[in-house]
Amino acid sequence: MGFPRLFLVTAGFWICQNAWTQSPTYRLGRTPTAEEIRAWDIAISPTGKELPSGQGTAKEGAVLYVRKGCAGCHGTMGSGGPAPTLISRKGAQAAAPMPPMPSMSCLAPCVNDANAMAVHSPFATTIWDYINRGMPLGKEGTLTSDEVYALTAFLLYKNDIIKEDEVMDARSLPNVKMPNRDGYALPPAWKHGTPRLQGYP
Predict the structure, then answer these.
(1) Cα 56 from chain centroid?
(2) Rounded (to 5) percent helix, strand, coil in the chain
């Protein structure tokens, strides 16, 4: 058996052995603690029942939008940056979309004024969830609950959904009526043995 062949056999055995050692047969690993599960379980449903305590207003969010660097990706006015539009420019629906910042292409999906990312979801809780788990880019998970509420309130206010002095918290946020609240539909129920998507193998 030549060296290349021996090397491949040895590498294959090593990979298989490492895969096997992850099996319960070898009693490796452990059950995560309740605290670890709690740290990973951060999803917020449309009903908002998982929202934490805390609160925030649009005025507080306006300060945070600058302080946390949101403008660097989304533009100083919430539009025109390389990242998706968060705040629709007034009267821009019929106008041509604002071009992205020089030398930077709009990230896919390129959401513009006609489809502002902040108000595309039918549920306001989705905005809170997205900011909480994914922002700021590269520093995810560093925002406090109060800061996330404030930034969410800021985006809702700037898109004419709530008033500037409205306080967003675990009780008020799920009750916000989004512009697209009735503009979505659930996918049809899946039946065993059928493709999950039409035309998908």
Answers:
(1) 19
(2) 40, 0, 60
Cis peptide before 179 (omega within 30 of 0): no
Mean pLDDT per segment of 10 residues, for the chain of length 201 residues? 51 50 67 86 90 97 96 89 80 41 46 63 93 93 96 95 97 94 76 72 53
pLDDT for 104: 43
Residue 132 phi/psi, 5-degree rounding, is -65, -40
pLDDT given at position 198: 67
Those residues whose C-beta lies under 8 Å from the C-beta of residue 178, and which sit 6 or more positions away, are: 119, 121, 122, 123, 124, 161
Taking CA atoms, 76 is separated from 46, 66, 70, 89, in Å, by 29, 8, 8, 12
Q: Which helix (H) or strand (E) holds 8?
A: helix 3-20
Helix (H), strand (E) at residue 66: helix 58-67
| Residue 180: both structure tokens together | 């697209």
**What integer pLDDT is reported at residue 110 of this predicted model?**
52
Cα gap 94→108, rounded to integer Å: 21
Residue corresponding to tokens 């705040």: 87
Q: How many CB atoms lie within 10 A of CB 40?
A: 8
Beta strands in the chain (DSSP E): 55-56, 168-169
